Amino acid sequence: MYQTTYHRPTSLAEAARLFSEAGDAAYVSGGHTLIPAMKLRLSAAANLIDLRHVGELKGISVTADEVAIGAGMTHAEVAGAAEVKGAIPALAGLAGSIGDAQVRHLGTIGGSVANNDPAADYPSAVLALAGTVETDRRAIAADDYFVGLYETALEEGEIVTRVRFRVPEAAGYAKFRNPASRYPMAGVFVARHGDGSVRVAVTGAGNSGVFRAAEMERALAADFSADALKGIALDPADMMGDIHGSAEYRAHLVTVMARRAVQNLGQALAFV
């Protein structure tokens, strides 16, 4: 790596001030996207502003309609929270399926959503659960937030403070993991909402990052069962292809994972 200056603010105001004053700065929380990128010299921030000690980014609150999770909450904290398990068990299960124990105790939901890594788990839940990403400046609906690979609607210096999820009638998540990295090669979060709508979000497979599968949503809105997805095939031209799997293989995985997500509502299943 190369020389960087580490900053440890304890408030949002201090973090924002450091960002504006330091120059060539980047926020870091769990660091599971940024730090590897720095090691590979794909990123070269001269100032790292660590958000892990900002108390304003902590906490979980639940109402009848919504689960709100502070951006600084770790995957392990989300997975173990009784409030999340009770309101959206598939979301707690997703958090508990991320990486390994070391990753889950350091990585945060805010870091995952802010970086929008194409193989991250949380973006699929944010999209499928009609979530809202709150920042220190505004609130952004999920459909407007995710822009492309590693791209979001966040502006320069904007900090994700909280993520709100709509409580669904039913939801499930299933993913096929790369056995080495444990990142999903295809992950699908399915949610049926009280207004009768169904949202299906796919991560790990698309050329443009996380996306909604419209044909699957229409089929499940008419018949919320795994059988409704029979015969639906995604276009491989829209899928990612690499040394771990071809575009055709990922297109097939998406359909398989979507069916398994519906078959196992209330859970998050991980396959290798």
From TrEMBL:
The keyword Oxidoreductase applies. Keywords: FAD, Flavoprotein, Oxidoreductase. Gene3D superfamilies: 3.30.465.10, CO dehydrogenase flavoprotein, C-terminal domain, Uridine Diphospho-n-acetylenolpyruvylglucosamine Reductase, domain 2. It holds the Pfam family FAD_binding_5. The keyword Zinc does not apply. InterPro entries: CO_DH_flav_C (IPR005107), CO_DH_flav_C_dom_sf (IPR036683), Diverse_Substr_Oxidored (IPR051312), FAD-bd_PCMH (IPR016166), FAD-bd_PCMH-like_sf (IPR036318), FAD-bd_PCMH_sub1 (IPR016167), FAD-bd_PCMH_sub2 (IPR016169), Mopterin_DH_FAD-bd (IPR002346). It comes from the Bacteria. Residues 1-170 form the FAD-binding PCMH-type domain. One of its GO terms (molecular function) is oxidoreductase activity. PANTHER family: XANTHINE DEHYDROGENASE SUBUNIT C-RELATED. This is Xanthine dehydrogenase family protein subunit M. The lineage of its organism: Bacteria, Pseudomonadati, Pseudomonadota, Alphaproteobacteria, Hyphomicrobiales.
